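Form P-L/3: holo structure prediction, ligand NAP.
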Amino acid sequence: MARSDQGAPVSPATRPGIGPVLTPGRWALITGASSGLGSEFATQLASRGLHVALVARRAGRLEELAARLRADHKVDAHVVVEDLSRRDAAAAVHAAVKDAGIAVDVLINNAGLGTSGDVIDTDPARIDELLQVNVTALTGLSRLFAADMVAAGAGAIVNIASVAAAIPAPHMAVYSASKAFVASFSQALAVELEGTGVRVVTALPGATATEFAEAGGRIPGPASMHARAEDVVASFLTAVDQLRTPLVATHGRADAAMAALLPKLPRRPALRLIERAMRAR
Ligand SMILES: NC(=O)c1ccc[n+]([C@@H]2O[C@H](COP(=O)([O-])OP(=O)(O)OC[C@H]3O[C@@H](n4cnc5c(N)ncnc54)[C@H](OP(=O)(O)O)[C@@H]3O)[C@@H](O)[C@H]2O)c1
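OUTPUT (holo model):
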């Protein structure tokens, strides 16, 4: 059995980093809470009794969701309207919740957008926006809130990457590269924070039915094959619950197989395969 600094035995439930984190009364901050996976994260966390801070640009949607969660689950819901493509967005969100007297126990770094098409055909403003939201804001928020959680001795961060992080994807090159950054950064952060009481899960969703395509991204495969957001989010929250928190979480066998196998294939033929699959759409 593990021992505390004073030499007393420590049970698994009280050992730093492996106690339950998704418990009633804690605060979760969810970016991209106005639709898709983010809205579902907020709903499932509120149903477990956590208070939620909701971040995105569409104020109306956030207010509507906040009102519903307050009514349905008797939790507090705080809205932070922020454009995460602004350079100082992470600091602004951190300051906004501090000013509201909220100590964030759980951070869901979910906001993200995609590109579709070749690099040379993509609007450079779209590339900048994507990198700011998917990479810069996620990194800044992780850093700021992880420091608070380490000081508190507990917390959880879920960083939403993608199965697209497993291999470079021609015709969505910027998006897949941004998600490879998230997956790399997030797993390294998890190990840096081991023993602090803060767990970090790198989530790799596959094709999921959300508004991602309407917002300019690409969801591969036929709509009938897309996973339901509620099932995907439930899988990722289960990963956070586990005593031995996995570094990386996927939903379903197909996504798990892709995440494990794609990086192991000989690179050039694998890239050709992905290129054909992406071009066919
Ligand atoms: N759906 C899939 O198949 C899939 C697969 C793998 C990974 N993912 C990842 O899952 C995450 C959630 O995506 P989703 O599928 O749920 O798509 P979605 O329905 O389009 O939701 C995206 C969310 O991100 C927010 N967002 C986008 N740009 C923002 C900005 N500049 N500032 C603040 N918030 C911003 C949007 O809010 P506002 O527009 O209100 O700002 C929205 O709430 C993303 O990171 C995505 O890359 C999705």
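COMMENT: The chain is about 45% helix and 15% strand.
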